[in-house]
Amino acid sequence: MKQNIQEQNGQTPATEAEAAVQGGNSAIRHVLKYTGLFGSVQGINMLVSLLRNKLTAWLLGPAGIGLINLFNSLTKFIGDSTNFGISFSAVKHVSELFEEEDTERIRAFVRVVRTWSLLTALLGTIVCVIAAFFHDHTTDIIIVSPIVGILALMGGEMAILKGMKELKRVAKVSVASALSTLVICVPLYYLMGLRGVSVALLVSNIAVLAIYLSASTKVFPYVVTLFSKQDLKAGLPMIRLGVGYIVAGVFGSGAQNYILESINDVGGEAAVGLYSSGYVMMVQYASVVLASLEADYFPRLSGICHDRMKMNGTVNHQIEVCTLLLAPMLVFFVIAMPYLLQLLYSQKFVAAVPMAVCASFYIFFKALFTPVEYLPLAKGDSVMYMTSELIYDIFVAIAVPWAYCTHGLWGAGFALSVGGLIELIFVNIVYRYKYHYAFCFKWLPVYLVQFSLLCAAVAVSFFGHGWMYWVLGIAMLMVSAAISFLLLKKEMKR
Q1: Which of 66, 67, 370, 420 could disulfide-link to 362, CB 3.0 to 4.6 Å?
Q2: Closest CA to 332 of 359, 360, 309, 305
């Protein structure tokens, strides 16, 4: 039966995927537009964050940074545990209604989202207040406890904006929030010192919530119905999907914490710092290109995932753009990593270069599989999503500590990359049969060429010296960038 479904209209999945991406210049243009938009937003937010961290460190010292991280970590953990994933799952349901162009149903579901968001906000705040009495900083944690509720409310409003395709508003809100946090926190740290940490965090989050509400209420006025059984029941499918997303996130956090604890047991805190800095430099910073996935791609995919042809075209276009944009960036990161680590950290962190360089393959694979991984979420299949994430998390939780013990930091980075390759193979095999996803082999030669250039850059990073290092590195960067530029330009003109 599956074969009959896959070959309807006389097309196999592979040829169907190629047909879906033919003449996709408008789709390519759309993906490039919003990848660039949200990539730029992420870049601006990173710069603002770096400036805020520098000023905070200057004003408060290590103790202040420690308190801020402590309070942020606690409120985020409690928030993630009590918000039922509404900030993510609501996007799918709102975007589906948006595609149907049923204004009344959208308005009703927006009310459902806000009602559930308010309920989870109250729950999270209460839990944080209770947790404060089991902590050394009881008074400060009580002060910051409303932040948990604020985060839940902001998540609901952001989900509404994303589902309604109000992407320019999403971008503006994100930048305005980062700037307002900088403008509010730094003066309070200067005036109040360590005593002002909890107050500054609360005031800045209230200001950010005001920014969110200002944007979202222009789309739909704020209405909640806390005591409506009908609205509470209408939100249950959204809650079920959100819980799956949160559980998958817990798997990821647990695996990462286990990796850090294992490295700490073997190499101490210094080794953990080197691993973490390498991870941030290569994995988090290079992933800026993937920032558009949740904001633009996920709502689009949720709206058309029931049409197999459109679904395959959308996924493969996203893979194409993400890979072509990321490939030259990865080559640049690999070649420049020794200097980037010194610039953003210090000379002491250069030892993390091998780990970061070997982890570059993981990001390349991530560009190929992340757009596919959104399929179970777009279809509301939280069990499949959790299964996929659990397989990857179990592998890296075992492989990375083992690789670090046997081969050091470069081994840990390489183990991450192997995990990415396994994830790529898994989603392409399993999702082909479960969701009839078809990878477009038309672009496979280009992906292989870009991957070969990345491999060559990694080899130069390990074995190149002096002028040869720079000549070969810059040459590969120029070739990779030229291939991506020319192919994307050609696709947009078709």
Answers
A1: 420
A2: 360
Question: Is the dihedral angle over the CA atoms 38, 39, 40, 42 positive or is it negative?
Answer: positive
> Is the four-CA dihedral 394, 73, 370, 287 of positive or negative sign?
negative
**156 and 114 in contact (C-beta within 8 Å)?**
yes
H helical segments located in 345-443:
353-358, 360-378, 382-407, 409-435
Q: How far apart are CA 240 and CA 113, in angstroms?
A: 13
DSSP string spanning 239-262? Answer: HHHHHHHHHHHHHHHHHHHHHHHH
The Cα 410–Cα 360 span in angstroms is 11
Instruction: Determine the Cα angle at 40 with ends 35 and 46, to 5°.
Output: 125
102 Cβ neighbours under 8 A, 6+ residues apart: none
Domain locations in the chain?
44-234, 252-494
- The number of residues making up the chain comes to 494
pLDDT over 70 (residue 3): no
Residue 196 to residue 194: CA distance in whole angstroms: 5
Instruction: Determine the pLDDT at residue 395.
Output: 92
Token look-up 């559930």 returns 116
Measure Cα distances from 274 to 7, 148, 270, 278 in Å.
Answer: 51, 31, 6, 6
Q: Which range is most confident: 21-35, 52-66, 216-230, 295-309? A: 216-230
Q: What is the CA radius of gyration of the chain?
A: 23
* Region of 441 on the Ramachandran plot (φ > 0 left; ψ -120 to 50 alpha; else beta): alpha
Residue whose C-alpha is closest to residue 388's, from 411, 439, 422, 340: 422
**What pLDDT was estimated at residue 366?**
92
| Residue 37: how many other CB atoms lie within 10 Å | 18
Dig out the tokens for 47 from the structure: 């710069």
- Residues sharing a CB contact under 8 Å with residue 241, sequence separation 6 or more, in sequence order: 85, 89, 92, 377, 380, 382
Q: For 199-225, what is each residue's pLDDT tens digit?
A: 988 999 999 999 999 988 888 888 888
**Is the pLDDT assigned to residue 427 strictly greater than 60?**
yes
Q: What is the mean pLDDT of residues 12-16?
A: 51
pTM: 0.74
